[in-house]
Design brief:
Largest sheet: 5 strands, mixed
Strand content: 5-15%
Number of helices: 28
Low-confidence stretches: 315-321, 397-403
Shape: elongated
Number of domains: 5
Radius of gyration: 46 Å
CATH class of the largest domain: Alpha Beta
Strand order of the largest sheet: 2-1-3-4-5
Oligomer: single chain
Length: about 675
Amino acid sequence: MNPGNQEQKVSKRHLQRKAYLYVRQSTLRQVLENQESTKRQYELKSRAIALGWREEHIVVIDSDLGQSGASAADRKGFQKLVSEVGLGQAGIVMGLEVSRLARNCSDWHRLLEICALSGTLILDEDGLYDPGCFNDRLLLGLKGTMSEAELHVLKARLRGGILNKARRAELKMPLPVGLVYDPDQRVVLDPDKQVRQSISHFFTTFHRAGSAFGVVRAFSNEGLLFPRRGRAGSGELAWEQLTHSRVLQTLHNPRYAGAFAFGRTRSWKDAQGRHRYESLPVDQWEVLVKEAHPGYISWERFEGNQCRLKDNSKAFGIDRKRRSPGDGPALLQGMVICGKCGHAMSLRYHKRQGKEVPDYVCQKDTVEHAKSKPCQYIPGESVDQAVADLILESLTPLNLESVFEVQKRLEERMQEIDRLRRQRVERARYEAERARNRYMQVDPANRFVADSLEADWNETLRLLGEAEETYRQQSEQDHKNLSEAQKQEILNLASDFPALWKDGHTSNQDRKRMARLIIADVTLIREQTITVQVRFKGGANKVLHLPLPKRAWELRATEERAVKEIDALLEHHTEAEIAALLNRRGWHSGEGKAFTVGIIGHIRRYHQLKGRFERLRDKGMLTATEVAFRIDSKPDAVKYWRQQGLLKGTRFNDKQEYLYQEPTTENIQIIKQRSRLTAQR
């Protein structure tokens, strides 16, 4: 394209606007090392002056130096350029080549369309173009496509080289703590003995605890720290408290199983240009080379750990069936299946007399289809007790060889923990000795350096003292926890499985683990009774039929025999006397309380028992008013004549109120005679 044609495209309207020069390099390394390319981009400013723009009207946008042109999301300078063009402020846009402005066809064609609408020219090293002209626009579109294709080819070449090297397991990648590169660039276990033993103990603890949280709790209770290096897998070794995220990160890393893996994640950009990442399952990894280097666990154990983590997960576990045992009292947590719909039943707890009581609920359809009622709701206390009794009936006592093996493993575990703690003290002693040597080698006259090294030495001595004191306290605690008397107690308990099961020191988690070793699952059906089908790991089945548990008011109801006893006692005793008699016999109400007058009265009214007053009236006994009419006296005088023995009365309540037998004719005459004599006096 000759200069004459270029000058014909520039009009007075273009020169009244500003000229925008866009400068970009893809990486900071290119900015530092490829300075000639940057210089050529700035020299385009002279081309704008030659076309008629004044220097003060030329705007240089170079804020995107070090940014890739693959997307406009992170390029503030390019976004500013597009907005200025859209507002009609730009007469011309300059870039050394199309790839400097954009390596993405969508961004490039959007810029072309806006330039065409606003009448903005585009200038590169080859010539001047008018996006409003079809031929120029066709040529610019072709250049944009070639620029994007060039980026694709470059990436494909780099990706192909990386992938080819990864398939041979020779691609050098950051290693997790516990693995290092030797001088020949081969992956080997960390030469630091403390690091190796800490990681081995980590995987042993997970195998025993069965959950990531259990590993964190075990390390915390044992006072152990976990090693850490820099982000790139290098740098100075540090020791820190183990966290849940570190546990998951370590368990999910295949390098610990001696496997080289590449392409474990997939990344993409969303509509807003933000990077998104997704972890892929093992069968979708681009490269997986097993036994590529030494590891801490086998590949089979790594896969088993992944299955355990997946089962433990609340979000991704299959119907939450195999979560690790919790601290709650529900024995069958994660093992219960609904006998009506086949879904796994979830667990709920409620309080009863300050005690947690489990319930098994099938609410799969309730959640999925918004049903108002769950499929089944079964109180779990009686079910757990029945299954526990079945386990005890089905197992014979453990043999002594297994007991001694378990005890031996416990002792080996404590020795391993003690060895890790001693290594921490030895490392602190080594650091203190290094600080001492540095201090002793410095010139005493150089107080600036000597004072600093002396402070470092004192600090390492303080850390050494803390490490030794912590080790001493933890060792004493371990010795206390495993005294000879307690070892013998463990031995005695372990030789008798029922005693071990019922022992108060056995936690709910341990009972659940023992149950899971024996039982595969339990199916529940609630009808007239609760049908419990227990499937053992060996394939045997056992069916139990349990009565429906009593409702809350039924649990608080007084026993039938106590009601009958109260009915019988009402013939001869008042309610206060009955309460005292029952309490002396050791009886209790339905709520487990001692009997009182109020409770006896409530039971009498609820069961519609005749009171003592009605019983005596049915026997023909008279009230004080009726007796006073027969003896021709006042009701107040009846009490006096009863005390004189002329009337026979029976107390019918605890208020000293009486009912009386029919007075005889002889006693009536005596009472009347004595009343007349008293009146004459």
